[in-house]
# Entry
Amino acid sequence: MTDFRSVFGAAPDGVWAAPGRVNLIGEHTDYNDGFVLPIALPHTAKATVRRRDDDLLRLYSEQGDGRVTEVGPAGLTPGGVTGWAAYPAAVVWALREAGHPVGGLDVHIDSDVPTGAGLSSSAALECVLAAACDGLYGLGLAPAELALIAQRAENTFVGVPCGVMDQMASLCCAEGGALFLDTRDLTQRQVPLDLAGQGLRLLVVDTRVKHDLGDGAYARLRAGCERAAALLGLPALRDLPLAALDGALARLPAELRPLVRHVVTEDARVEQAVALLDAGDLAGLGPILSAGHASLRDDFGVSCPETDLAVAAAVDAGALGARMTGGGFGGSVVALVAEAGAEQVAKAVGAAFAAAGHAEPGLFTALPSAGARRLA
Ligand code: ADP
Ligand code: MG
# Structure
């Protein structure tokens, strides 16, 4: 264990935190201008930070490579920083690119968001840097503006063509609610999610299968969606109404049809979920989660044996519904469970993993938590 002072030999100016997220429904919709419904996790990336009076970045993470990465202004270009330090460096680069006067920083990171688990440790890391820079350099940017900068950082500097959901969730979620976000214009609304009040719980299962979004699969899916929208003469798949889906599918090549079917039905599931939550029917979310998983597994093709097993075991043991969450190819599953049956569901998932010879999954209850904030 290190802290800021032991690494940098001086006192910090402040401490910020930004959370990871669990997306309840709306997967692979955010780069199709569609809808999403994430909650922020209690797990956060913390950044302890000091302003420097030069342009140098010095970056250290408790979960990093055990050394301080130094980046001068000349090295701060896409491709110029590799490894974990690319994420925080990217944010400083994107802020400067957008004309914001951000100088040098010493940064100590400590995060309890599991990495590569589909819970968005990368956005937590980016967003805590964005919030810290905003605070330390008095930029006065709105959370949504910081989210767009963090997304640009990940897209252009790190090289992951992600949508804007993770960054918006990390910066804009509020405690006790889910963030209903229209990713086209960033219109957002907090939807109350009083799970405990209805005797419910969200159980997260980290399958321990590390996804790697850098392997090109994500980019291929995104390109497929964009090609389908272009063939249909639409700005984005979000513009295809559910009622027009069947007619549109008939006009597309066979390999694009399942992608389009997933995105269009998934947008509809987000709207259904929000209507149920607004009506106070939290249990009604269960079947929507399960339908979303079937769509990701059968149409979008981003599930894997471990996420399928976790979903099946949870539902068999009494969960109201369950789905993989995050980009896929591993990562985590979120299950809606009755509080009284939560223990049983957790045990059943663990037993199913043991029986299949998989590593022991990580299990925790996700409480809808606050977005990025200053701690000290
Ligand atoms: P996810 O966002 O689902 O956790 P990603 O592949 O998008 O998965 O991001 C994981 C990467 O983010 C890690 O491989 C690492 O480079 C970086 N990262 C996240 N949190 C930390 C941390 N606390 N310290 C160092 N690197 C981190
Ligand atoms: Mg990520």
About this structure: The longest strand covers residues 38-51. Residues 120, 122-123, 166 surround magnesium ion (ligand 2) (CB under 6 Å).
